[in-house]
Specification:
The protein starts with a helix and ends with a strand. With 102 residues, it is α/β, with parallel strands linked by helices. The longest helix has 14 residues. It is globular, with a radius of gyration of 12 Å. The chain is built from four helices and six strands. Helix 1 packs parallel to helix 3 and helix 2 packs antiparallel against helix 3. A hairpin with a 7-residue loop joins strand 2 and strand 3. Strands 1-5-6-4 form a four-stranded mixed sheet. A two-stranded antiparallel sheet has the order 2-3.
């Protein structure tokens, strides 16, 4: 469903894409004491982390893949955030902001 969202957002020429999830955003080392929120990142940075196994399928992997696809296809921002942070995330103050060159 996340990739379908990206394809729809690309197809309708959406100004940005927001993927809502149950956590504040994308984390490096999620579930460990070293977990850290990625507040701003590029598709390339996410691909490197994904290659390291940071975003397994069934967790954040599909959302990260969709964000990469959308940003690469449009050159626009994708956001991954939780519902409570939506307004702040749109303003760039919460969630993970995936930008062409973060």
């Amino acid at each position: 469903k996340d990739l379908a969202t990206a394809l729809l957002a690309i197809g309708v020429d959406a100004a940005q894409m927001i993927l809502v999830t149950g956590v504040p955003g994308v984390y490096r080392d999620f579930g460990t004491d070293e977990a850290s929120l990625l507040s701003r990142c590029s598709p390339g940075e996410l691909e490197v982390l994904a290659g390291q196994g940071q975003f397994p399928p069934g967790t954040m992997g599909p959302k990260v893949e969709a964000a990469i696809e959308y940003v690469r296809a449009t050159g626009r921002r994708a956001i991954i955030c939780q519902p409570a942070d939506l307004a702040d995330a749109v303003m760039g103050r919460a969630g993970t902001q995936v930008e062409p060159s973060a």
